Amino acid sequence: MSQLTILAVDDNQQNLNLLNAALHERFNIILSDGTESIEAICHQHQPDIILLDIMLGNTSGYDICKELRQSSVKDDLIIIFVSALSSLEDKLSAYGAGGDDYICKPIDIDILEQKLLSLEKRIDQHHELEHQYESATEAAFTSMTYSSELGQLMSFFSSTLNIFDTESLYAATQSLVRSFDTNCSAVFRFDNENIRYPTNINSALENEILDLSECTERTISFGHNLLLNSPHCSLLIKKIPIENEEKSGRLKEHFLILLEIIENRLLFIYNEMQKAAERDKAISQLSETLELDLNRIKKTLADKELQSQNILSKFEITLNLKLVSIGLAEEEEIEILGVLQDTKEEFEALLNTSIDLDNEIRDIFNLLKKVH
Q1: What pLDDT, on the 0 to 100 scale, is given for residue 61?
Q2: CA 204 to CA 127: how far, in whole Å?
Q3: So where are the chain's domains?
Q4: Which fold has domain 143-271?
Q5: Chain-centroid distance, C-alpha 72
Q6: Greater confidence, 350 or 126?
Q7: Do domains 5-132 and 143-271 have the same CATH topology?
Q8: Contact 219, 246 (CB under 8 A)
Q9: pLDDT band at 284; cut points 50, 70, 90
Q10: What is the mean pLDDT of residues 183-198?
């Protein structure tokens, strides 16, 4: 509870001395005979209450009150008129000028002190309510900001579920970081390969920091920068507002969550890359095995075709020789040779089937190469 400041304005020095003697131990008393600018005194001392005499030589308390209410002094200034005048008209004039209370002279110090103590309690309660309101407003604003920022993180997490490459992951990260009025660069690590983003970093020192970050602590703050590290990612956040401790602390928490999301997505991408590599390897091995087996089958078929051709040729020669020695009629020879010709045509048809099979095998190889 702060001490109440009271400005007493009266052109009678005896009245001022009386008020000062009665109140100075309990309150902070400022005295004025009305010849100075009351507004200037208010700006200098910031009184909580003014005890204002009505009759002040060349001016009146009414006029001073009106001027104060129209000035830039604080709105919650309490003005209590003090006067020997006690008619209803005087009190209506005091109220119309902007007064809050009215005390008639001669002043009963006990009543005045009780009134001031009551006002002091009310002022303190008012200040406490203002403080609570400001705290509640600030807390509500912070809560809304925090919720909004967490919403952005959740949206980022959802969007990464459809990301399957590091370039798109960095682009989404950069977009989120910029929404917090900061910036970032990053390095993604897969086995012995480091992928740095953006790819056009011109700062040699920044490149070196990212290269060495793998062996450092999880979080390092330096200046307006924050370096975050996980097994597969180092994230350098720039332009952290360190002047605002509440905001910078909140952002650091968000960026740690961001790092975890990125790390999990990198693990997924890495696993998918390994699966793809294993799949390519399996397809390559299958292709090689099939090629060996099919080539062996083709060779076997070719050998069998050659053997069949040789057998058919020998049979044709033997048959022609036998026909000469047997002495068959011409019609019989023609009939036998016709059967032989039909057999040769069927054999050639079988050879064409083998060629078609060879083309189909070639198509299978081409398909495997495309899949690989």
Answers
A1: 92
A2: 55
A3: 5-132, 143-271, 276-371
A4: Beta-Lactamase (3.30.450)
A5: 43
A6: 126
A7: no
A8: no
A9: confident
A10: 89
34 and 57 in contact (C-beta within 8 Å)? yes
Structure tokens at 40: 């200037």
Report d(CA 216, CA 147) in Å as an integer. Answer: 31
pLDDT digits over 18-34, tens only? 999 988 888 999 999 98
Between the alpha carbon of residue 22 and those of residues 27, 77, 226, 299, 352, the distances in Å are: 10, 22, 61, 126, 129
How far is 107 from 37, CA to CA, in rounded Å?
Answer: 25
Mean per-residue pLDDT over the chain, rounded? 83
Q: Which of 139, 170, 172, 143 is nearest to 157 (CA)?
A: 172
Handedness of CA 7, 9, 10, 13 (dihedral sign): positive
Q: Give the H or E element holding residue 294.
A: helix 245-326
Distances from the Cα of 336 to the Cα of 238, 323, 330, 346, 349, angstroms:
97, 9, 10, 16, 20
Please report, as a single letter, which amino acid is at residue 355: I
- What's the rounded Cα separation, in Å, for the pair 337 and 148? 95
Q: Are 214 and 222 in contact (CB under 8 A)?
A: no
**Is residue 135's pLDDT more than 50?**
yes
Long-range contacts from 187-195, C-beta under 8 angstroms, 24+ separation: 187/211, 187/213, 187/233, 187/234, 188/232, 188/233, 188/266, 189/214, 189/231, 189/232, 189/233, 189/234, 190/232, 190/266, 190/270, 190/273, 195/166
CA distance 169 to 270: 13
pLDDT at 137 over 50: no
| 164 backbone φψ class: left, alpha, beta (φ>0; ψ -120 to 50) | alpha
Rg for the chain, CA atoms, rounded: 51
Query: What is this structure's pTM?
Result: 0.50
**Mean pLDDT, range 111-125, rounded to an integer:** 86
Question: Counting beta carbons within 10 angstroms of the beta carbon of residue 64, is it exposed (0 to 12), middle (13 to 18) or buried (19 or more)?
Answer: buried
Residue entry with tokens 């090689």: 288
CATH class of 5-132: alpha beta
